[in-house]
Design goal:
Length: 231
């Protein structure tokens, strides 16, 4: 679904990502892990078109999208949930979802229902302003809002950052369910190693902008990943 081939990205004169190769097969969850400053968010921003790629190629469903603007990638089936549980704080949870649903035509209402089925706790909070929700609730709302666009690939940046453990488990279950039943591909950047491996089918470790380890996901890989991240 998504392929990054020898991708180089940076800011000004500073190179941050150096020749990264990464593949997210259709219907799979791929986790990218690494310490702060490893280049994980920079890599995601390049994948979704928010940062230009200095060299290399980004392919989405077999199409070269390296020079496509973000809105064109969204229309092609990509959704991005950045760090920080972002929402329109003065709007209710329902209005946050409706903003996206209104431009989706007849499919919009159905997608809202599907997203709420995935995060049922939000149903009782639809009339509450998003700014008054807990961090975990806002994160669920941010993911639900992205799903209303009807993506085939969703990119999640640190979805468990600052969130209570009970909600982390709910988000993990949702990610696994999406990939297993909806055919949705997921690219996940995460520092929570246990969560990332439990949710993913493949992982890559990023260090100083380079991939230093890859492998199959699964909780049994945690020692291997922690060893790779300690290098």
């Amino acid at each position: 679904m998504l392929q990054l081939r020898d991708v180089h990205v940076g800011y000004g004169r500073t190179a941050v990502v150096h020749g990264v190769d990464l593949e997210v097969p259709t219907g799979s969850v791929v986790a990218v892990m690494g310490h702060n400053g490893a280049g994980k968010t920079t890599l995601l921003r390049a994948a979704v078109g928010l940062l230009p790629v200095r060299a290399g190629t980004v392919l989405l469903d077999g199409h070269d999208v390296t020079r496509w603007r973000p809105h064109r990638r969204v229309r092609a089936g990509l959704a991005y949930v950045p760090q920080g549980q972002q929402s329109f704080g003065q709007l209710t949870a329902r209005e946050n979802l409706q903003l996206v649903a209104d431009v989706q035509g007849a499919a919009g209402a159905r997608r809202v229902d599907d997203a709420l089925d995935l995060f049922p706790a939000l149903r009782g909070l639809l009339g509450r302003r998003a700014g008054l929700l807990s961090g975990g609730q806002r994160q669920q709302l941010a993911i639900a809002r992205a799903l209303v666009t009807g993506p085939r690939l969703i990119v999640l940046d640190e979805p468990t950052e600052g969130i209570q453990p009970s909600v982390v488990a709910e988000i993990e279950d949702a990610i696994v369910q999406l990939a297993a039943t909806g055919g949705l591909s997921v690219l996940l950047v995460e520092q929570h190693v246990g969560f990332a491996l439990a949710a993913s089918s493949r992982y890559s470790v990023l260090e100083s902008g380079r991939v230093t380890a890859t492998g199959a996901g699964g909780a049994e890989r945690e020692a291997d990943v922690r060893a790779a991240m300690a290098l």
